Amino acid sequence: MKIPLYKLVEVIWKDAEEYGEIGWNDLKAMKRYARKPCPLMKSVGYVLYNDTQHISLASSIGDKECSSIEKIPMAFVKRISELVPVEEIHSVKES
User: Fold this and answer.
1) 54-58 β-sheet, strand order
2) In this predicted structure, what is the pLDDT of residue 88?
């Protein structure tokens, strides 16, 4: 089985958020919550697609199948870091 190589990355991004219960919510409590920053998220996966609009990651990948994909708008992205496979770390130490 030959699996195509895909970049493995960690994406740090600010998520959009919705808060509150169905129906009426206390305005004072909502105003307090409204000031809180959006949550900072970290996602790790194989890059299936990347352009100026969004990045698409799969957490698991095979030669003909993959997990569901996570699409993150690039406007939400703070940082993308390419992860180094363990084999490369070991080969560098052995050199």
Assistant:
1) 69-73, 54-58, 40-50, 8-14, 77-82
2) 61
